[in-house]
Amino acid sequence: MSRPDQDALLDLAAAYALGALSAEETQRFEAYLATSPEAQREVAEYREIGALLALSEAEPRPAADLRSRVLARVGEQKTTALSARHPAPGSGRPTPLVWGALAASLIAAAGLGAGLLSLRGRVDALQIELAAREQTLSERDRLLRAREATLNAILEPGVKLFQLTSSGDPEPLIQLFWDQQHNVAILHGFQLKGVPAGRAYQLWFVKDGKPVPSITFQPESSGHAKVERIPVPTGGTLSAAAITVEPESGSPQPTSPILLVGPLQQKS
Amino acid sequence: MFSQAAAPPPLGDGDLIAKVAGGDERAIATLYERYGGVLYAVAYRIVGQRADAEEVVIEAFAQAWREAPRFASERGSVAGWLTMIARSRALDTVRARSRRNRLTASAAAERTGVSPAMGEWHPDPAGAVDHAERRAKVREALETLSPPQRQAIELAYFEGLSQSEIAELLQEPLGTVKTRVRLAMQKLRESLRPFYFERGT
Protein backbone atom coordinates (compact mmCIF):
# COMPACT_ATOMS: atom_id res chain seq x y z
CA MET A 1 0.00 0.00 0.00
CA SER A 2 1.39 3.41 -0.87
CA ARG A 3 2.03 5.99 1.82
CA PRO A 4 -0.73 8.42 0.71
CA ASP A 5 -3.27 5.55 0.79
CA GLN A 6 -2.11 4.68 4.30
CA ASP A 7 -2.40 8.28 5.42
CA ALA A 8 -5.93 8.44 4.06
CA LEU A 9 -6.79 5.30 6.00
CA LEU A 10 -5.03 6.51 9.13
CA ASP A 11 -7.19 9.63 8.97
CA LEU A 12 -10.19 7.39 9.59
CA ALA A 13 -8.85 6.28 13.00
CA ALA A 14 -10.53 9.07 14.98
CA ALA A 15 -13.93 8.53 13.41
CA TYR A 16 -13.52 4.76 13.79
CA ALA A 17 -12.84 5.06 17.52
CA LEU A 18 -15.98 7.20 17.80
CA GLY A 19 -17.96 4.57 15.89
CA ALA A 20 -18.76 7.17 13.23
CA LEU A 21 -17.64 5.38 10.07
CA SER A 22 -20.10 3.92 7.60
CA ALA A 23 -20.29 0.13 7.39
CA GLU A 24 -18.22 0.11 4.21
CA GLU A 25 -15.53 2.39 5.68
CA THR A 26 -15.47 0.34 8.89
CA GLN A 27 -14.78 -2.82 6.94
CA ARG A 28 -12.03 -1.18 4.90
CA PHE A 29 -10.45 0.38 7.98
CA GLU A 30 -10.57 -2.83 10.02
CA ALA A 31 -8.75 -4.71 7.28
CA TYR A 32 -6.03 -2.08 7.43
CA LEU A 33 -6.11 -1.95 11.25
CA ALA A 34 -5.36 -5.65 11.50
CA THR A 35 -2.05 -5.11 9.71
CA SER A 36 -0.97 -1.72 11.01
CA PRO A 37 0.49 -1.27 14.51
CA GLU A 38 0.46 2.48 13.85
CA ALA A 39 -3.29 2.45 13.28
CA GLN A 40 -3.79 0.24 16.36
CA ARG A 41 -1.96 2.83 18.48
CA GLU A 42 -4.03 5.64 17.00
CA VAL A 43 -7.30 3.85 17.69
CA ALA A 44 -6.22 2.93 21.24
CA GLU A 45 -5.47 6.57 21.92
CA TYR A 46 -8.67 7.90 20.40
CA ARG A 47 -10.61 5.37 22.47
CA GLU A 48 -9.14 6.91 25.61
CA ILE A 49 -10.73 10.14 24.49
CA GLY A 50 -14.02 8.26 24.23
CA ALA A 51 -13.67 7.16 27.85
CA LEU A 52 -12.96 10.73 28.88
CA LEU A 53 -15.93 12.05 26.91
CA ALA A 54 -18.14 9.82 29.06
CA LEU A 55 -16.88 11.89 32.00
CA SER A 56 -17.95 15.18 30.47
CA GLU A 57 -21.40 14.42 31.79
CA ALA A 58 -22.04 15.05 35.45
CA GLU A 59 -22.69 11.67 36.99
CA PRO A 60 -26.33 11.27 37.90
CA ARG A 61 -26.73 9.05 40.94
CA PRO A 62 -27.57 5.45 40.03
CA ALA A 63 -30.07 3.67 42.26
CA ALA A 64 -28.48 2.48 45.49
CA ASP A 65 -29.21 -1.13 44.64
CA LEU A 66 -27.48 -1.02 41.23
CA ARG A 67 -24.23 -2.38 42.65
CA SER A 68 -25.94 -5.44 44.09
CA ARG A 69 -27.88 -5.98 40.85
CA VAL A 70 -24.65 -5.85 38.84
CA LEU A 71 -23.04 -8.39 41.16
CA ALA A 72 -26.13 -10.59 41.14
CA ARG A 73 -26.02 -10.76 37.32
CA VAL A 74 -22.33 -11.57 37.37
CA GLY A 75 -22.99 -14.29 39.96
CA GLU A 76 -25.76 -15.73 37.78
CA GLN A 77 -23.38 -15.94 34.85
CA LYS A 78 -20.88 -17.72 36.99
CA THR A 79 -23.41 -20.46 37.86
CA THR A 80 -24.87 -20.83 34.37
CA ALA A 81 -21.38 -21.01 32.88
CA LEU A 82 -20.54 -23.86 35.24
CA SER A 83 -23.80 -25.77 34.85
CA ALA A 84 -23.80 -25.34 31.07
CA ARG A 85 -20.38 -26.92 30.86
CA HIS A 86 -21.52 -30.01 32.74
CA PRO A 87 -25.15 -30.72 31.92
CA ALA A 88 -26.75 -33.74 33.52
CA PRO A 89 -26.29 -36.57 31.06
CA GLY A 90 -29.16 -38.25 29.26
CA SER A 91 -32.19 -36.96 31.11
CA GLY A 92 -35.50 -36.66 29.28
CA ARG A 93 -36.79 -38.32 26.18
CA PRO A 94 -36.13 -37.02 22.67
CA THR A 95 -39.04 -35.44 20.86
CA PRO A 96 -39.90 -37.76 17.96
CA LEU A 97 -40.26 -34.86 15.53
CA VAL A 98 -36.75 -33.50 16.10
CA TRP A 99 -35.10 -36.89 15.99
CA GLY A 100 -37.01 -37.86 12.88
CA ALA A 101 -35.33 -34.84 11.32
CA LEU A 102 -32.01 -35.98 12.72
CA ALA A 103 -32.40 -39.34 11.02
CA ALA A 104 -33.17 -37.60 7.72
CA SER A 105 -30.19 -35.24 7.94
CA LEU A 106 -27.95 -38.11 8.95
CA ILE A 107 -28.76 -39.91 5.78
CA ALA A 108 -27.97 -36.76 3.82
CA ALA A 109 -24.68 -36.25 5.64
CA ALA A 110 -23.64 -39.86 5.29
CA GLY A 111 -24.33 -39.62 1.56
CA LEU A 112 -21.73 -36.88 1.37
CA GLY A 113 -19.13 -39.16 2.80
CA ALA A 114 -18.40 -36.88 5.73
CA GLY A 115 -15.94 -38.49 8.08
CA LEU A 116 -12.25 -38.71 8.46
CA LEU A 117 -10.08 -36.23 6.60
CA SER A 118 -6.39 -35.72 6.50
CA LEU A 119 -5.61 -34.76 10.07
CA ARG A 120 -2.43 -32.95 9.13
CA GLY A 121 -4.25 -30.81 6.57
CA ARG A 122 -6.83 -29.74 9.13
CA VAL A 123 -4.15 -29.00 11.70
CA ASP A 124 -2.43 -26.76 9.15
CA ALA A 125 -5.70 -25.00 8.46
CA LEU A 126 -6.17 -24.53 12.19
CA GLN A 127 -2.70 -23.04 12.50
CA ILE A 128 -3.24 -20.62 9.63
CA GLU A 129 -6.57 -19.59 11.01
CA LEU A 130 -5.16 -19.03 14.47
CA ALA A 131 -2.19 -17.12 13.07
CA ALA A 132 -4.52 -14.68 11.34
CA ARG A 133 -6.11 -13.91 14.69
CA GLU A 134 -2.92 -12.94 16.42
CA GLN A 135 -2.93 -9.20 16.30
CA THR A 136 -1.23 -8.15 19.46
CA LEU A 137 1.73 -9.37 21.39
CA SER A 138 -0.01 -10.50 24.53
CA GLU A 139 -2.72 -12.14 22.53
CA ARG A 140 -0.08 -13.88 20.49
CA ASP A 141 1.55 -15.13 23.66
CA ARG A 142 -1.68 -16.46 25.05
CA LEU A 143 -2.73 -17.95 21.73
CA LEU A 144 0.57 -19.68 21.25
CA ARG A 145 0.14 -21.47 24.54
CA ALA A 146 -3.45 -22.34 23.71
CA ARG A 147 -2.48 -23.49 20.23
CA GLU A 148 0.23 -25.71 21.57
CA ALA A 149 -2.24 -27.30 23.94
CA THR A 150 -4.80 -27.71 21.15
CA LEU A 151 -2.26 -29.17 18.77
CA ASN A 152 -0.96 -31.55 21.40
CA ALA A 153 -4.51 -32.65 22.09
CA ILE A 154 -5.29 -33.13 18.41
CA LEU A 155 -2.07 -34.95 17.68
CA GLU A 156 -2.59 -37.48 20.47
CA PRO A 157 -2.73 -41.02 19.09
CA GLY A 158 -6.30 -42.24 18.78
CA VAL A 159 -7.78 -38.82 17.89
CA LYS A 160 -10.27 -38.96 15.02
CA LEU A 161 -11.82 -36.05 13.17
CA PHE A 162 -15.54 -35.95 12.43
CA GLN A 163 -17.37 -33.18 10.64
CA LEU A 164 -20.79 -31.75 11.34
CA THR A 165 -22.34 -29.99 8.37
CA SER A 166 -25.58 -28.28 7.54
CA SER A 167 -27.45 -30.27 4.85
CA GLY A 168 -24.28 -30.67 2.88
CA ASP A 169 -23.31 -26.96 2.79
CA PRO A 170 -19.57 -26.49 3.19
CA GLU A 171 -20.33 -23.64 5.63
CA PRO A 172 -21.04 -23.48 8.49
CA LEU A 173 -18.79 -26.31 9.49
CA ILE A 174 -17.99 -27.92 12.82
CA GLN A 175 -15.05 -30.21 13.33
CA LEU A 176 -15.07 -32.58 16.25
CA PHE A 177 -11.68 -33.98 17.21
CA TRP A 178 -12.55 -37.00 19.31
CA ASP A 179 -9.81 -38.51 21.43
CA GLN A 180 -11.14 -42.03 21.66
CA GLN A 181 -8.57 -43.11 24.22
CA HIS A 182 -9.57 -40.50 26.75
CA ASN A 183 -13.13 -39.87 25.57
CA VAL A 184 -12.75 -36.13 25.30
CA ALA A 185 -13.31 -33.96 22.24
CA ILE A 186 -12.36 -30.57 20.87
CA LEU A 187 -15.00 -28.70 18.93
CA HIS A 188 -13.88 -26.26 16.26
CA GLY A 189 -16.50 -24.28 14.31
CA PHE A 190 -16.28 -21.96 11.32
CA GLN A 191 -18.68 -19.50 9.71
CA LEU A 192 -21.24 -19.95 12.45
CA LYS A 193 -24.04 -17.41 12.54
CA GLY A 194 -24.51 -15.42 15.74
CA VAL A 195 -27.25 -16.53 18.12
CA PRO A 196 -29.86 -14.22 19.69
CA ALA A 197 -29.22 -12.90 23.20
CA GLY A 198 -29.85 -15.54 25.85
CA ARG A 199 -29.40 -18.41 23.36
CA ALA A 200 -26.44 -20.60 22.54
CA TYR A 201 -25.48 -23.48 20.34
CA GLN A 202 -25.71 -26.85 22.09
CA LEU A 203 -23.86 -30.00 21.13
CA TRP A 204 -25.62 -33.37 21.33
CA PHE A 205 -24.18 -36.84 21.14
CA VAL A 206 -26.54 -39.51 19.86
CA LYS A 207 -25.99 -42.54 22.08
CA ASP A 208 -27.99 -45.70 21.45
CA GLY A 209 -30.30 -43.61 19.25
CA LYS A 210 -31.00 -40.99 21.93
CA PRO A 211 -29.64 -37.45 22.24
CA VAL A 212 -27.32 -36.84 25.18
CA PRO A 213 -26.85 -33.15 26.03
CA SER A 214 -23.32 -31.77 25.92
CA ILE A 215 -21.76 -28.32 26.13
CA THR A 216 -23.28 -25.02 25.02
CA PHE A 217 -21.22 -22.34 23.31
CA GLN A 218 -21.47 -19.03 21.51
CA PRO A 219 -19.44 -18.24 18.39
CA GLU A 220 -17.20 -15.18 18.30
CA SER A 221 -18.25 -12.37 15.98
CA SER A 222 -15.90 -13.86 13.38
CA GLY A 223 -18.13 -16.95 13.31
CA HIS A 224 -15.39 -18.98 14.92
CA ALA A 225 -15.83 -21.22 17.96
CA LYS A 226 -13.55 -23.51 19.86
CA VAL A 227 -14.38 -25.61 22.92
CA GLU A 228 -11.86 -27.94 24.42
CA ARG A 229 -12.01 -30.87 26.83
CA ILE A 230 -15.59 -31.85 26.03
CA PRO A 231 -16.45 -35.09 27.82
CA VAL A 232 -17.74 -37.71 25.37
CA PRO A 233 -20.46 -39.99 26.75
CA THR A 234 -19.45 -43.60 27.24
CA GLY A 235 -21.30 -46.85 27.94
CA GLY A 236 -23.25 -47.11 24.70
CA THR A 237 -22.93 -46.80 20.95
CA LEU A 238 -22.39 -43.30 19.62
CA SER A 239 -23.75 -42.89 16.11
CA ALA A 240 -23.85 -39.12 15.55
CA ALA A 241 -23.30 -35.63 16.92
CA ALA A 242 -25.61 -32.71 16.25
CA ILE A 243 -26.01 -29.01 17.00
CA THR A 244 -29.19 -27.12 17.92
CA VAL A 245 -29.86 -23.65 19.29
CA GLU A 246 -31.00 -23.70 22.92
CA PRO A 247 -31.24 -21.38 25.92
CA GLU A 248 -27.80 -20.24 27.12
CA SER A 249 -27.89 -22.55 30.12
CA GLY A 250 -28.50 -25.60 27.93
CA SER A 251 -31.49 -27.95 27.53
CA PRO A 252 -31.90 -31.51 28.79
CA GLN A 253 -33.38 -32.37 25.40
CA PRO A 254 -33.39 -30.59 22.02
CA THR A 255 -36.10 -27.97 21.59
CA SER A 256 -35.20 -26.67 18.13
CA PRO A 257 -34.43 -28.13 14.71
CA ILE A 258 -30.99 -29.58 14.07
CA LEU A 259 -28.63 -27.12 12.39
CA LEU A 260 -25.59 -29.29 11.86
CA VAL A 261 -25.14 -32.99 12.08
CA GLY A 262 -22.53 -35.62 11.30
CA PRO A 263 -22.05 -39.34 11.81
CA LEU A 264 -19.63 -40.62 14.45
CA GLN A 265 -17.79 -43.89 14.33
CA GLN A 266 -16.11 -45.54 17.28
CA LYS A 267 -12.86 -47.37 16.82
CA SER A 268 -13.50 -50.98 15.96
CA MET B 1 4.79 -11.49 67.44
CA PHE B 2 3.10 -10.58 64.27
CA SER B 3 2.83 -6.90 63.56
CA GLN B 4 -0.26 -5.66 61.88
CA ALA B 5 0.56 -5.38 58.17
CA ALA B 6 -0.13 -2.02 56.58
CA ALA B 7 -3.13 -2.00 54.24
CA PRO B 8 -1.89 -3.16 50.83
CA PRO B 9 -1.83 -0.50 48.14
CA PRO B 10 -5.00 -0.51 46.02
CA LEU B 11 -4.74 -2.76 42.96
CA GLY B 12 -4.36 -1.18 39.55
CA ASP B 13 -7.12 -1.60 36.97
CA GLY B 14 -4.97 -4.04 35.01
CA ASP B 15 -4.53 -6.28 38.07
CA LEU B 16 -8.24 -6.12 38.73
CA ILE B 17 -9.18 -7.17 35.22
CA ALA B 18 -6.78 -10.11 35.46
CA LYS B 19 -8.53 -11.17 38.68
CA VAL B 20 -11.92 -10.76 37.00
CA ALA B 21 -10.68 -13.00 34.20
CA GLY B 22 -9.83 -15.55 36.87
CA GLY B 23 -13.37 -15.43 38.23
CA ASP B 24 -12.89 -13.08 41.20
CA GLU B 25 -16.18 -11.36 41.94
CA ARG B 26 -14.61 -8.96 44.46
CA ALA B 27 -12.46 -7.57 41.67
CA ILE B 28 -15.46 -6.73 39.51
CA ALA B 29 -17.09 -5.16 42.57
CA THR B 30 -14.05 -2.90 42.91
CA LEU B 31 -14.24 -1.99 39.23
CA TYR B 32 -17.90 -1.15 39.74
CA GLU B 33 -16.94 1.13 42.61
CA ARG B 34 -14.38 2.86 40.42
CA TYR B 35 -16.26 3.14 37.16
CA GLY B 36 -19.91 2.27 37.81
CA GLY B 37 -20.69 5.96 38.03
CA VAL B 38 -18.90 6.78 34.77
CA LEU B 39 -20.70 3.95 32.98
CA TYR B 40 -24.02 5.02 34.42
CA ALA B 41 -23.37 8.60 33.30
CA VAL B 42 -22.65 7.65 29.70
CA ALA B 43 -25.55 5.19 29.65
CA TYR B 44 -27.92 7.76 31.09
CA ARG B 45 -26.78 10.39 28.62
CA ILE B 46 -27.42 8.00 25.70
CA VAL B 47 -30.65 6.26 26.75
CA GLY B 48 -32.14 9.25 28.60
CA GLN B 49 -33.87 7.39 31.42
CA ARG B 50 -32.94 5.63 34.61
CA ALA B 51 -34.35 2.11 34.27
CA ASP B 52 -32.76 1.58 30.85
CA ALA B 53 -29.48 3.16 31.98
CA GLU B 54 -29.31 0.79 34.95
CA GLU B 55 -30.02 -2.20 32.74
CA VAL B 56 -27.22 -1.03 30.42
CA VAL B 57 -24.77 -0.87 33.34
CA ILE B 58 -25.77 -4.37 34.48
CA GLU B 59 -25.37 -5.73 30.96
CA ALA B 60 -22.05 -3.95 30.51
CA PHE B 61 -20.51 -5.41 33.66
CA ALA B 62 -21.92 -8.85 32.79
CA GLN B 63 -20.25 -8.57 29.38
CA ALA B 64 -17.00 -7.38 30.96
CA TRP B 65 -17.12 -10.42 33.23
CA ARG B 66 -17.47 -12.74 30.24
CA GLU B 67 -14.89 -10.99 28.08
CA ALA B 68 -12.25 -10.13 30.68
CA PRO B 69 -10.00 -13.01 29.57
CA ARG B 70 -9.80 -11.36 26.14
CA PHE B 71 -8.99 -7.87 27.45
CA ALA B 72 -5.84 -6.57 25.75
CA SER B 73 -4.13 -3.73 27.59
CA GLU B 74 -2.31 -2.41 24.54
CA ARG B 75 -5.66 -1.58 22.98
CA GLY B 76 -6.37 0.89 25.75
CA SER B 77 -7.23 1.29 29.41
CA VAL B 78 -9.70 -0.76 31.41
CA ALA B 79 -11.80 2.38 31.86
CA GLY B 80 -11.80 2.95 28.10
CA TRP B 81 -12.80 -0.63 27.47
CA LEU B 82 -15.61 -0.60 30.04
CA THR B 83 -16.91 2.69 28.70
CA MET B 84 -16.86 1.37 25.15
CA ILE B 85 -18.91 -1.67 26.20
CA ALA B 86 -21.45 0.49 28.05
CA ARG B 87 -21.72 2.89 25.13
CA SER B 88 -22.38 0.04 22.66
CA ARG B 89 -25.01 -1.53 24.91
CA ALA B 90 -26.66 1.87 25.41
CA LEU B 91 -26.72 2.56 21.68
CA ASP B 92 -28.22 -0.91 21.11
CA THR B 93 -30.97 -0.04 23.58
CA VAL B 94 -31.69 3.21 21.83
CA ARG B 95 -31.61 1.66 18.37
CA ALA B 96 -34.27 -0.71 19.53
CA ARG B 97 -36.51 2.34 19.93
CA SER B 98 -37.39 4.64 17.10
CA ARG B 99 -34.47 6.86 16.28
CA ARG B 100 -36.77 9.56 14.97
CA ASN B 101 -38.66 9.79 18.26
CA ARG B 102 -35.47 9.98 20.22
CA LEU B 103 -33.92 12.75 18.18
CA THR B 104 -37.07 14.83 18.45
CA ALA B 105 -37.22 14.24 22.18
CA SER B 106 -33.58 14.99 22.80
CA ALA B 107 -33.70 18.19 20.75
CA ALA B 108 -36.67 19.33 22.79
CA ALA B 109 -35.16 18.30 26.10
CA GLU B 110 -32.38 20.93 26.06
CA ARG B 111 -30.04 18.77 28.00
CA THR B 112 -28.50 20.16 31.13
CA GLY B 113 -26.49 17.04 31.73
CA VAL B 114 -28.11 16.11 34.97
CA SER B 115 -31.68 16.16 36.10
CA PRO B 116 -32.34 18.32 39.17
CA ALA B 117 -33.35 15.41 41.36
CA MET B 118 -30.01 13.70 40.94
CA GLY B 119 -26.94 14.89 42.74
CA GLU B 120 -23.39 14.15 41.82
CA TRP B 121 -22.35 10.67 42.79
CA HIS B 122 -19.31 10.22 45.00
CA PRO B 123 -19.22 6.58 46.08
CA ASP B 124 -15.53 6.56 46.89
CA PRO B 125 -13.82 9.81 47.85
CA ALA B 126 -10.47 9.02 46.19
CA GLY B 127 -12.06 7.87 42.96
CA ALA B 128 -14.49 10.76 42.95
CA VAL B 129 -11.72 13.34 43.30
CA ASP B 130 -9.92 11.64 40.47
CA HIS B 131 -12.98 11.76 38.25
CA ALA B 132 -13.81 15.32 39.25
CA GLU B 133 -10.40 16.55 38.19
CA ARG B 134 -10.54 14.66 34.91
CA ARG B 135 -14.07 15.83 34.29
CA ALA B 136 -12.97 19.46 34.69
CA LYS B 137 -10.16 18.88 32.19
CA VAL B 138 -12.49 17.23 29.70
CA ARG B 139 -14.94 20.10 29.93
CA GLU B 140 -12.11 22.60 29.49
CA ALA B 141 -10.92 20.69 26.43
CA LEU B 142 -14.42 20.60 24.97
CA GLU B 143 -14.62 24.38 25.45
CA THR B 144 -11.65 24.80 23.12
CA LEU B 145 -13.59 23.20 20.26
CA SER B 146 -15.67 25.30 17.93
CA PRO B 147 -19.40 24.74 18.53
CA PRO B 148 -19.81 22.79 15.26
CA GLN B 149 -16.81 20.60 16.15
CA ARG B 150 -18.22 19.87 19.59
CA GLN B 151 -21.64 19.13 18.15
CA ALA B 152 -20.18 16.67 15.64
CA ILE B 153 -18.28 14.80 18.38
CA GLU B 154 -21.33 14.66 20.63
CA LEU B 155 -23.62 13.46 17.84
CA ALA B 156 -21.17 10.71 17.02
CA TYR B 157 -20.31 9.64 20.56
CA PHE B 158 -23.57 10.06 22.44
CA GLU B 159 -26.11 9.66 19.64
CA GLY B 160 -24.21 6.96 17.77
CA LEU B 161 -24.56 8.73 14.43
CA SER B 162 -22.16 8.02 11.60
CA GLN B 163 -20.48 10.90 9.80
CA SER B 164 -22.89 10.48 6.88
CA GLU B 165 -25.86 10.63 9.25
CA ILE B 166 -24.46 13.76 10.88
CA ALA B 167 -23.99 15.37 7.46
CA GLU B 168 -27.55 14.51 6.56
CA LEU B 169 -28.93 15.78 9.86
CA LEU B 170 -27.04 19.07 9.62
CA GLN B 171 -27.47 19.34 5.83
CA GLU B 172 -23.78 19.84 5.32
CA PRO B 173 -21.31 18.22 2.92
CA LEU B 174 -19.93 14.90 4.17
CA GLY B 175 -16.36 16.10 3.60
CA THR B 176 -16.93 19.05 5.93
CA VAL B 177 -18.22 16.79 8.67
CA LYS B 178 -15.32 14.36 8.27
CA THR B 179 -12.76 17.14 8.54
CA ARG B 180 -14.56 18.54 11.54
CA VAL B 181 -14.56 15.22 13.39
CA ARG B 182 -10.91 14.62 12.61
CA LEU B 183 -9.73 18.07 13.68
CA ALA B 184 -11.84 17.97 16.83
CA MET B 185 -10.45 14.59 17.86
CA GLN B 186 -6.89 15.77 17.18
CA LYS B 187 -7.47 18.82 19.33
CA LEU B 188 -8.93 16.72 22.15
CA ARG B 189 -6.00 14.38 21.90
CA GLU B 190 -3.52 17.23 22.32
CA SER B 191 -5.26 18.62 25.38
CA LEU B 192 -6.30 15.36 27.04
CA ARG B 193 -3.25 13.19 26.55
CA PRO B 194 -1.95 13.77 30.12
CA PHE B 195 -5.30 12.73 31.58
CA TYR B 196 -5.90 9.31 30.06
CA PHE B 197 -7.02 6.62 32.46
CA GLU B 198 -4.45 4.19 33.73
CA ARG B 199 -3.48 1.59 31.15
CA GLY B 200 -3.95 -2.01 32.21
CA THR B 201 -0.81 -3.93 32.88
Give keywords.
heterodimer; A: 268 residues; alpha+beta; 4-stranded antiparallel β-sheet; B: 201 residues; mainly alpha; 9 helices
Task: Summarize the structure in words.
The complex is a heterodimer of chains A (268) and B (201). Chain A has 268 residues and is α+β, with helices and mostly antiparallel strands. Helices cover 42% and strands 24% of the residues of chain A. Chain A is built from eight helices and eight strands, in the order ααααααααββββββββ. Chain A has helices at residues 3-10, 13-17, 23-33, 37-55, 66-85, 96-111, 119-133, 137-155; strands spanning 159-166, 169-179, 184-190, 199-207, 210-217, 225-231, 238-247, 260-263. In chain A, the strands form two sheets. In chain A, strands 1-2-3-6 form a four-stranded antiparallel β-sheet. In chain A, strands 5-4-7-8 form a four-stranded antiparallel β-sheet, with helices on one face. Chain A is globular, with a radius of gyration of 22 Å. Chain A starts with a helix and ends in a 5-residue tail after the last strand. Chain B has 201 residues and is mainly α. Chain B is built from nine helices and no strands. In chain B, helix 2 packs across helix 4 (78-95). The model of chain B is unreliable at 107-129 (pLDDT under 50). At the A-B interface, helix 2, helix 4, helix 5 and helix 8 of A face helix 2, helix 3, helix 4, helix 6 and helix 7 of B.
What integer value in Å does the Rg of chain B equal? 19 Å
Rounded average pLDDT of chain A: 76
% residues in beta strands of chain B: under 5%
Query: Terminal Cα separation of chain A, in Å?
Result: 55 Å
> If helices are DSSP runs of H or I spanning 4 or more residues, what is the number of helices of chain A?
8
Output the structural class of chain A. Answer: alpha+beta
Poorly predicted ranges of chain B (pLDDT <50, ≥5 residues)?
Answer: 107-129
Strand order of the largest sheet of chain A: 1-2-3-6
The sequence of SSEs of chain B as H and E is: HHHHHHHHH
Q: Pick out the low-confidence regions of chain A.
A: 83-98, 106-118
Beta-strand residue percentage of chain A: 15-25%
Structural class of chain B: mainly alpha
Q: Measured on Cα atoms, how large is the radius of gyration of chain A?
A: 22 Å
